[in-house]
Design goal:
The chain is mostly beta strands and 131 residues long. It is 0% helix and 50% strand. The strands form 2 sheets. Strands 2, 4, 5, 6, 9, 10 and 11 form a 7-stranded mixed beta sheet that branches. Strand 4 and strand 5 form a beta hairpin.
C-alpha cells in the first residue's frame, strides 16, 4: 500500500513558476513510476508527465513539454514537478499517481502514464494562475 500526498499548489501570476511535490509513503517491493495529471474545471483529466522508478525515464505530454520538469528524489520518497511559464490555462487540480510495475529489474525504467490504470492516487493540489 502506498499513500501519495501532493503539495506546492497555490495562486501564481501568469508567467510565474511553481514546484509541486508528491511525497510517497507506505511500502512496496514493486518498482513504480510516478506520474502527474491535472484536471481543470469542466475538463477531463490530462496526463502531464511521468518518471520511472530509477529516474532514468521521463516522459512529457504536449501540455507539459518544454515548460515542466519532473524529477525524483528516492532518498526523500518525493517526486517534483517544476512548472514554468504558467498561464491561466494551467489552472487545475494537479494529482500525482503511482503505477506499480512489479519486482523484476526489467521494469525499473518503465513510465507510461496509464491514467485509470494507475494504482494509487493523491488527493490533489490546486494551482490557480491569475493576475
Amino acid at each position: 500500500q502506498l499513500q501519495l500526498v501532493e503539495s506546492g499548489g497555490g495562486l501564481v501570476q501568469p508567467g510565474g513558476s511553481l514546484r509541486l511535490s508528491c511525497v510517497v509513503s507506505g511500502s512496496t517491493s514493486d518498482y513504480y513510476e510516478i506520474a502527474w495529471f491535472r484536471q481543470a474545471p469542466g475538463a477531463e483529466r490530462e496526463a502531464l508527465s511521468c518518471i520511472s522508478s530509477d529516474g532514468q525515464t521521463t516522459k512529457y505530454t504536449g501540455s507539459a513539454k518544454g515548460r515542466f520538469t519532473i524529477s525524483r528524489d528516492n532518498a526523500k520518497n518525493t517526486v517534483y514537478l517544476q512548472m514554468n511559464s504558467l498561464s491561466p490555462e494551467d489552472t487545475a487540480v494537479y494529482y500525482c499517481a503511482a503505477d506499480l510495475w512489479g519486482t523484476s529489474t526489467v521494469v525499473k525504467d518503465m513510465c507510461e502514464m496509464r491514467g485509470q490504470l494507475m494504482d494509487y492516487w493523491g488527493k490533489g493540489t490546486l494551482v490557480t494562475v491569475s493576475s
